[in-house]
## 1
Amino acid sequence: MKLFLAFALTLCSNALSAPTPAQWGSYPNRPLELRDLVPPDGRRFSLIHDFNYVDQTGRLWAAPADLITDGASIPMPFWSVIGGPFEGLYREAAIVHDAGCCAKMQPWQDVDHMFYNAMRCSGVGWLQAKVMFYAVWAGGPRWTTANPTMPRECKIAQSAGPGFVSRLWQKSLAPNVTTKLLQEVGRRDLTLQEARAVARPFFTRGPMTDAQATEFVMKLKKVGAKPEEQELIALSVIQSERFSDEDVKGIEQWVEKENPSLETIEARAEGTRKTGTEKKTPELRLFPQVQELQQSVKSFSID
């Protein structure tokens, strides 16, 4: 099964590796090859070999072999724009962005700009690439101190360390928010939007339907979730509170109409990111009974 997955992903990467204009850089060691973790969870993968992106200035962005990747560096409400972080032309750029965010060896601004250029290098059109650039600038991870090397726990050999979600978003997860949120999921029927927020992290290979989200929640109530999965659910709910489906559609429409520059996108994204810090008690659309979410939503907007 693992061999089949690697073979299938290799074929997909080969099919999507059409030549791209030189101004967007290059991927010198295509094809991209991924494998399931052991045991597989259908959500996270690791790199079989080094996969690098060289931007248009010649700067090397490395995603090393054994890197654990799950698309968590891209705000999950925006996955609907692309279908999932491992979907189609976005997969190469998403994995290199995951690597940059986990390593934290370069300024976050440079990593986000690299993501845009890498998407264009992979053949993503300007509209969707700019929407996704807005997504990571408005809701992606940030850091102020650069690491000298990639932390060991970014790789599969060190999987016993803290999870990818914990490493990237530890400031956004208020004490007890994960526990209280999962208790609320098990206690009552969820609204459709709540169900979509809970299920979204587990649909990384394609679009998620409302029926699939509802079915996932029903299964979750029966079998529960592992600690790393619980954190991922909490993060998805926090991000979905900050960015509703209507917000995402509004950004798509704005980018399509205005074709803004990256600088203009950055300015609008900064305004969006800081909005949450201006409210002392954010009104929750999702899971209003879980008061711990208020602090998490507020913290999500703080650099």
## 2
Amino acid sequence: MKRKLCIFTLVGLVAGSFASFAQNNPPAAEATAPASTNEIAQAQPAPDAASATNTPAATSVAAADTATPPAVAATTTVTLQASSPDYAGQPITLTATVAASDHSTPSGTVTFESGGTALPVTTTPASGPNPATTSNGSASFVAEFAAAGTESLTAVFTSSNTGSWGNSTSTTLSLNVVTAPTFSGTIPLSVTVPTEGAFTLTVTPTPVALTPDSTGLNATGTIPNGQIQVSDTRNTFPGWSVSGQDGTWTGSGSAAGGTFPGSQLGWHPTGGTVAQNVVIAGPVTAAAPGLGSATVLASVVHGLQNGFGPSNLGAGLTLIIPPNEPAGPYSNSLTITAVNTN
């Protein structure tokens, strides 16, 4: 037992020398009483350096030390910026920058939203796609807001490789859209409008026959509207006046030698289409005073746009025939005169 104890003491002190000791003292090993299984296992000499590297225990430890832990996707952060200022009806550039927690450069797409709804793609201005593909960790989009107000904007990043980078959404950017300021100046302009236009009086010489009544002492007839026509296209608007005067009635044939004055004729002026502010004169009673002298048919005073354009005039006629005039045909001329200022 002392030798056995000595061997264990040596093993405990110098494990590497056990083999050499055993080789030099074989009888001691044979004389030793059989040890228990546990004791024999504890007494086995330590392997040399070459055999230790090939033992199962050594292989197991090496495998545990070199195992690779499962990959964890980097978190991402999206920062949304907008060019300033933003005016209603004008394009503005939105830029989203994506950063990863492991300092790599994430790739994927960014959807630009307002109030949770993707902003529309437009051709004018050219907005670009939405979602937009990132390039070197950023993406941009050109938006246009029609009306002034506040837009709640966000940028939503969708990773192209969720094993490497996670998805993320920016904080809300409140964009104040304002009405674009106006800047103006004035340039004095002037022009002198030349005097243009003309005044004309047209009297159609269609004979008007007056018809006597049953007494033979009164006759009536009509000058239709338009048989006397005034046209004024002057841009000076000086006004005008039209008058009528009846001449002496002269008999012929069986009434040869018979006459009576133009004052026996009266009228009731009429007008069809007339220009601005044209005034149709009142009636003139036959023989009191009648049309023996110039009498106004229609007129307009000077003034802006007054009398400009056509005026169609006419009149109802009444003739008082003197009772002592010889029977037969009579004729005369009603003279129409215009004055081109008033």
## 3
Amino acid sequence: MPYSIRKIDLFVEDVIAASALLRDAFEFAEIVAEEGFAELQGGPITLMLSKDARIPMPLSAGVTIHLEVSDVEAAAAHAKANGAETLLPIEQTPWGTTSALFRGPAGLVLDLYSESTDRG
């Protein structure tokens, strides 16, 4: 039976601030934002932010969310103007993308990228 990833739940200390950053800087559609839980839509994936888990677990870390955009420069400028911290400025990667990395909530990294037309 094939499985489909539809939702990802990330554990963060400040749900409201994390949701606001993802909404404002990265244009996720905020569905609900409450003190202990938020749900945002990012394309076909729903991103849930939770303060508490049903089982004990650490905050999310070591995760990169790759956001495909048509214009990396415009998306990066928008993210910076709305409070996102640049980790790595726009660059051409060896694997053929244009990419900029930003710090997200709870140790997340957000990669704004597009496929490069020049792969040479």
## 4
Amino acid sequence: MLVSPFAFYRVGALIMVADLARNRHSGVAAQLCGDAHLSNFGVFGSPERNLVFDINDFDETAPGPWKWDVKRLAASLAIAGRENGFSRSSAKVVVLETMRSYREAMTAFAGMRTLEVWYSRLPVKRIFKREFAAGIDPTRVKRTEADIAKSRTKGLLDAVSTQRLHTCRVPEVRANGVSLYYEEHGAGTPIVCIHGTGGSAAIWGDAATELATLGRAIVYDRRGCFRSERPEPYVTNVHEHADDAAALIDALEAAPAIVIGRSYGGQTAIDLALRYADRVRALVLLEASLLSLSDAGMRWAETIKDRVFAAAHIDVGTVAETFLRSVLGDATWEGFPEPAKQMFIANGPAIVAELRGGFLEVGTEKLRTVAQPTLLVAGMDSPPAFAEVTNIMAEAIPEAKIECIEGGHLVNAADPAVLRFVEQMLAAR
């Protein structure tokens, strides 16, 4: 407490309450934080692995006049400004701008429904450059962006470090002449997860554990990827992967399953639903890369193919990095833990084979025959091509609904929107 005025202020919540209690107030009470000073605001990880700006420390929470929290925040800004050498006028601007932001946010919340307020958040990635990066050294900005990307993928991909590379063969199932590595988590209604290009069962990370609380989560490495068998020479296409998925479901007696497909795995899930409808109970498409629906999407995909094939011609070990930097961005690639990078690199030949095999060729007329309830999930920070094809699919598939969530193309399968949909499908039995 003796270190500085701000240090004293931080531990003086009760003293401030005693002072404020003598003042008049509006009579509008709320459940207060009780200690809403500047240092209790920060960046925290949400359940969806997004970084959000929020408040913590509720040791002093209590009912009281709503203004008390606001006044404690305003006073802390003034004290912190003084302690950090701000002029009186600069500190005043900081306080007034914060109060303006608070007033505008409360006005916006007043027009929302209860659930809209509940799910409101302030994601760091979306506002970082717009609000926080102005005037900051570009090197520090780039380092911070890499930290943001790394924090988002950390929980998602840490499981990769415990997985062995392509030599692992247990447990496995034979499907269409190849051995597929798979894992099962939980029990009950089957939930089959199909990963995207370059990935594996490990990519689902903690999401598999979350899904296992709802049913029997089955994750597997598609043919040619990570621990599953890779035929030589390796030539493949979406139809072959859908055939494999159907064979896997049959072998594990998992029909009908709720099928979750990410990116290329989303194309596979669509083909599975169209050609093996009795194996699919419902679909969750995490930015299914059905780029054949969009001319602009195909042009974008062709530029990526050109880069990947050029990289493969020189060194297949550079394919994964070339591909993932193009789709996910530089910061996301740099944020992956080293074991995850090694997994992606080992999948280089599979990436090339899948790109050579092309996209699933189905139009909107065919999509109108998808009979299963379908959730389409789009990441707000993804390349525009994915948003476009997701919207096209949402309009074409009869029982489709769409959710836009924070983040990029590596959509979290344990996002609340996904879990709610799965729960609804289970309840509809």
